[in-house]
Fold Zinc carboxypeptidase.
Amino acid sequence: MKRIVTSALLTLFAASSFACQSNKIQLLNDFPNATSDALMTNCVIDEQNKRITVKLLPENKPINNSPWYAFQLISEKPQEITLTLTVEDGTHRYHPKVSHDGESWQAVDYQVVDDKMNVKLNIGPKTTWIAGQELITNQDYVDWGNELSQFEFIDHKVIGKSVKGKPIYQIITNQPAVKQWLVVLGRQHPPEVTGAMALFPFVDTLLGNSELARYFRQQYNIVIVPNMNPDGVELGFWRHNANGVDLNRDWNKFKQPEVIAVDKLLTELVARGDKVAMAVDFHSTHKDIFYTMPNDYGVQQPYLVNNWLNKLDSQYPDFNVIQKPGNNPQMGVFKQYVADKFDVHAITYEMGDNTDRSFIDKLAKDAANTLMQTMLKNNEKLH
Ligand SMILES: [Zn+2]
């Protein structure tokens, strides 16, 4: 019996594409979101000392310090090993999580000593996954869009292609009589998974069956581009697209196909007489914060975002909804582009890397509901 198990294991080893291996241990990166070969170096498996070391590299430089990592580990026999990650020209940002199915994840203890992050892991013949955040893959977005498009009023369509030819999808409500649009964007920055964790419940609430949502959609269409950077997501990039460009610095240059696709979409809406009313762009950073345009920037309905986020804040006695207004005309960020081109508010919705996952979910639902209430109220005032 043992012999059969061993030979099955050897077959598995032979069939897998591995990043590095010793006699009895493999580190693999042959799955979506994994750290790709070009983004790692000095991978050493020291069986004697039960230690695996890997150095993480960015896709190009200069770059925001967001060293992403995702690997699988397999060992012929169950054992405890120490995985040591180092970062080229950077510091560790993402706390390690472990999974045994790629679906459910648990934070694990780790230590950072000098520039080394050490994680003790129990590995064995079954795959152990380790990553900087839970994995949300390109396919997850496609599955979600397909599910939503089963509703009569929702379409799931390709609006363009990434640098490497991957489809950029929109999820869009198709109500021709409704002329105002709420725009939702996500995943310009691949490792910003907590932003994605907020986008899903936020959008599900907007597209849901509550009385508020149904009434809201009588007055507003919604277009969502949930996964702006599928190349970066696929290849485990820290920040950029496959041209090595930060997409959220390209909204004044319009050189990148991902940005061009969304600009074209919104430009066409306006060209046919519709109106962009508001936009929300989901990200992650070291804390929960909402980057806004200043009230006095000169956009229409100057207090829309203020009113929205104050209302949200009032629902959370123990949580501070931080609003950080900013005006950076030369930076090429999405919210500024929306304000300048469409003369309306937009925000960058940032969830902390380590924010409690169930809190992210609850806050996003409440944020969607309070946004709908605020936009409806503002709409009444206009008429
Ligand atoms: Zn970001």
Observations:
- The longest helix spans residues 357-382.
- Residues 1-16 have pLDDT under 50 and may be disordered.
